[in-house]
Write a structure and sequence with these properties.
With 220 residues, the protein is of the alpha/beta class. It has helices at residues 3-10, 46-56, 88-96, 116-124, 135-145, 159-169, 174-187, 203-219, and strands at residues 12-15, 35-39, 62-64, 67-69, 83-85, 100-107, 110-115, 128-132, 149-155, 196-199. It folds into 2 domains: 33-61 and 128-219, 3-Layer(aba) Sandwich (Rossmann fold); 66-126, Guanylate Kinase phosphate binding domain (2-Layer Sandwich), CATH 3.30.63. Helices cover 41% and strands 22% of the residues. The strands form 2 sheets. A 5-stranded mixed beta sheet has the order 1-6-7-4-5, sandwiched between helices. Strands 3-8-2-9-10 form a 5-stranded parallel beta sheet, sandwiched between helices. The termini are far apart. It is found in: Cytoplasm.
């Protein structure tokens, strides 16, 4: 079985059966927040672009939707800042209690997901909520929220360039890199399902393309 087939066999994506009522205004008639969904293969520059957008354009009133994961923290990551770090058993308990808007088991015992309560709190506060999620999670969130969400797919110039970027990061073994490439090849097939595809062959240009797309969406 090749790398891509193993990845597809291991992926389990789920959408909560309990529906949420998409909110547009609060009880006082004030506008509620909107949603920005970012997805991309690992190494595409998505995190760099999102961080630039949020740092350089505070007028957009953006705030991360903090996801949950069962992986261990990396580097200086902190619980409740980059992610809510849960054990695999705790993640499964929350799944059983129907607390997630979406979740995915990327590899065995490696979960990622978005808590419903976290999204609701931020939208009700009027924040424009930023989602940094996998492609299937992004598609599910977009499907649920419809026109209240803008979905952006950040695409590398090519798979070869993506491999070069992952090698230069020097954070993964060659086997892990090949797993990521197999996953990326699969994820690239989802690009057409997003509202916009931004090709990151030049970081500054990609940042500006994202900014203009987001600004237009929020001003619509």
């Amino acid at each position: 079985m090749d790398q891509q087939s193993r990845y597809m066999e291991n992926v389990s994506v789920n959408m909560s059966n309990q529906s949420l009522s998409p909110l547009k205004r609060d009880g006082r008639g004030q506008s509620l927040g909107r949603l920005l969904i970012f997805s991309a293969p690992s190494g595409s520059g998505k995190s760099t672009i999102i961080n630039w957008l949020m740092t350089e354009h505070p007028e957009l009133n953006l705030a991360f939707s903090i996801s949950c994961t069962s992986r261990a923290p990396r580097g200086t990551e902190q619980h409740g800042v980059e992610y809510f770090f849960l054990t695999p058993d705790e993640f499964r308990r929350r799944i059983a209690q129907n607390e997630f808007l979406e979740y995915e088991e990327v590899y065995a015992d490696r979960f990622y997901g978005t808590l419903k309560s976290q999204v609701d709190r931020q939208l009700e506060a009027g924040q424009n909520v930023v989602f940094d999620v996998d492609v299937k999670g992004g598609c599910n969130i977009k499907k649920f929220y419809g026109d209240r969400a803008l979905s952006l797919f950040i695409q590398p110039p090519s798979v070869d360039e993506l491999r070069n970027r992952l090698n230069k990061r020097a954070t993964d073994t060659p086997e892990v890199i090949e797993d990521r490439i197999a996953r990326a090849t699969y994820e690239l097939t989802f690009a057409s399902k997003f509202d916009r595809t931004i090709i990151n062959d030049n970081l500054e240009r990609a940042e500006q393309d994202v900014y203009l797309a987001v600004k237009s969406f929020l001003n619509d």
